[in-house]
Amino acid sequence: MGFNCGIVGLPNVGKSTLFNALTQTIAAQAANFPFCTIEPNTGRVAVPDERLQKLADIVHPKSLVPTQLEFVDIAGLVKGASKGEGLGNQFLANIREVDAIIHVLRCFEDENITHVEGSVDPIRDAEIVETELMIADLESLEKRFDQAQKKARGGDKEALVNVAVMSPIIEALKAGKPARSAAPDENNKDAVKAYKMLQLLTSKPVLYVCNVDEASAATGNDFSQKVFQKAEKEGARAVIISAEIESEVAQLESEEEKKEFLESLGLHETGLAKIIREGYKLLGLETYFTAGPKEVRAWTFLKGSKAPQCAGIIHSDFEKGFIRAETISYEDYVRLGGEQACKEAGKVRSEGKDYVVQDGDLLNFLFNV
User: Which residues are CB-neighbours of 23 under 8 A, at least 6 positions away?
Assistant: First the structure.
């Protein structure tokens, strides 16, 4: 089950530096000129979860397997991308394929790093990218809307749903608002399905990443404050990081060195850990665990998934032949000290096909194929 976040922004805002630190590789070339990232680079990173180690301390497995999230470093966008300026068409195609957007905004002054717009203004930068995405969405919808209307007049049920979904989105886009601001009610399954099928760029959830200078990493600055205000207004999320600090931390070998370095800057954890966690939340993801002598493993699932669907993440046969799931809550497992103690205390539940898996559940699936 793959989920990915596309790292986007104007050229020279720190996207590739951030990506390099995220994946601890030099796959993305960070250089002081636009379009140094020509092809999207992809990297998978472990999602920080202290629960995994606590489970391992009880089980003492041979290996620990964290859940992972994929990040895609996408070429910098410039004004006019929706009309093909810069690497516009490629940018739009690449961003269409990701599940969520990590929007990096430059929130630092540095005369040695050229800004493509000539000055530092993260709100303006955000609006440039958003406008290009909205223009692309509007053009895409208007082409399809006329056809849908014709079919709807002929009584086509699917077309009627499409028209009902597209109309408010088109109005929102014309008013300078993203498609997600006019998303259909979650309870209307047909409308939600039609909405997802549109694959609109501005329907994707957004996390704003304020890339600040080293001195502002712990507290933020005036630039980042404006971004947080924007995010709050939109119902979006935002985090503060210093891509330069993250790059330095990524080069340190031991966890102890990393911890000492961060503490010297007044930081408790890396900005990357925050981004990964927020990206996980952004996609509506949760974690369940399996624990045994061979491995303790974290598994990613979509919030609201039922037990058979979660079983299918391990193997499709588990879902096809699902019988039941032996379930222990993470809290009970840790408090009592393992599976056997939970059985003795009556804390192991037998859950059927309709059970909605909870974040942190420890599961053992019984199946028959």
Answer: 43, 44, 45, 71
Tokens of 27: 């796959």
Helices (H), 72-118: 88-96
* Type and span of the H or E element at 190: helix 189-197
189 burial via Cβ count (<10 Å: 0-12, 13-18, 19+)? exposed
Question: What is the Cα gyration radius of the chain?
Answer: 23
Q: How far is residue 173's CA from residue 138's CA, in Å, rounded to a whole number?
A: 6
Of the candidates 28, 40, 31, the residue with the CA atom closest to the CA atom of residue 90: 40
Question: Alpha-carbon distance 56 to 62, whole Å?
Answer: 9
Q: Give residue 318's pLDDT band: very low, low, confident or very high (50, 70, 90).
A: very high
Of the two residues 222 and 2, the one the predictor is more confident about is 222
Q: Please write the tens of the pLDDT for every residue from 97-140.
A: 888 899 999 998 887 766 666 788 999 999 988 988 898 899 88
